[in-house]
Amino acid sequence: MEPPAYCFHKTFAPSGPSAFQMERHYLLYALEGTLRLEAQGQRWTLPPARAALIQANEEVTITILSQLTSASVLFAPSFMSPPPQVLCVFDLSPLAHELIRECRDFGPDGGPLPVYAMTLFTTLAEVVLKLAQSPSKCVLPSPSSPALLRAVQLTEDQAHGAPTFTAIAKASNQSPRALARRFSSEMGMTWREVLRRIRIVRAVEMLAMTEASVTEIAHQVGYGSLSGFNAAFRDHMGLSPTEYRASFKR
Fold first, then answer.
1. Is this structure's pTM higher than 0.70?
2. Considering just the CA atoms, what is the radius of gyration of the chain in Å?
3. Which residue segments constitute the domains of the chain, with CATH numbers given?
């Protein structure tokens, strides 16, 4: 019989989008590698030093962008309160990181948990539930209509260059006025805000997955100047790109 909470490690090769669902609340932590997670019309990037808490019996979509080594913790629904959302992505605090490290000795086949392990898992559950109250800003809403989906896909395809709203509207066979309404009603954002978010999410992935310099990343995601990229990144993520990358190595 499996214990009420346990930890396991596994390495996964890159793979395309796939459905994921567990009977337990699932804390997913990437020691190495980067994931893309989707649920309830939103999409998150999960690089190292970030974690995801997934509700039991809820389906999410996972894309493994680079080889992944995970240290995940599974909690029986009776062991902890349910997470506040189907999928919560958040920065992992030093305390949570150390708790996960200590929990790694207690896997699914270890038999009944000793008192020490029960204390560890109980504390970890309380800590991650609190962290889940402050979700990551690295999220992009998903459009619901085919027309807006097409416009967003075109924007993603051209984000590294200099796309214009008028050109995107024309290429997706919509008037600028109709397309602007769709962005507002379906995503709660303007087209320019979506373009900026796409670029920042892409930069987060590159900071985690590559050794490219910040200047190279700025240009590859569509910024003409390093200062403009740094300002946009800090405004959205609360850290400079250099500080954000350093957080992966703590």
1. yes
2. 20
3. 5-131 (2.60.120.280), 141-247 (1.10.10.60)
pLDDT, one tens digit per residue, over 136-174 is 877 888 888 999 999 999 999 999 999 999 999 999 999
- Read off the pLDDT of residues 76-95 as tens digits, 9 standing for 90 and up: 999 999 999 999 999 888 89
Q: CB neighbours of 177 closer than 8 A, spacing ≥ 6?
A: none
Q: Are 88 and 129 in contact (CB under 8 A)?
A: no
What are the φ and ψ backbone dihedral angles of 206, each rounded to 5 degrees?
Answer: -70, -35
The CA-atom distances, in angstroms, between 83 and each of 71, 125, 127, 129, 162 are: 19, 10, 12, 6, 40
* Size of the chain in residues: 250
Q: Which amino acid is at 69?
A: T
Decide: 115 and 84 in contact? Cβ < 8 Å.
Answer: no
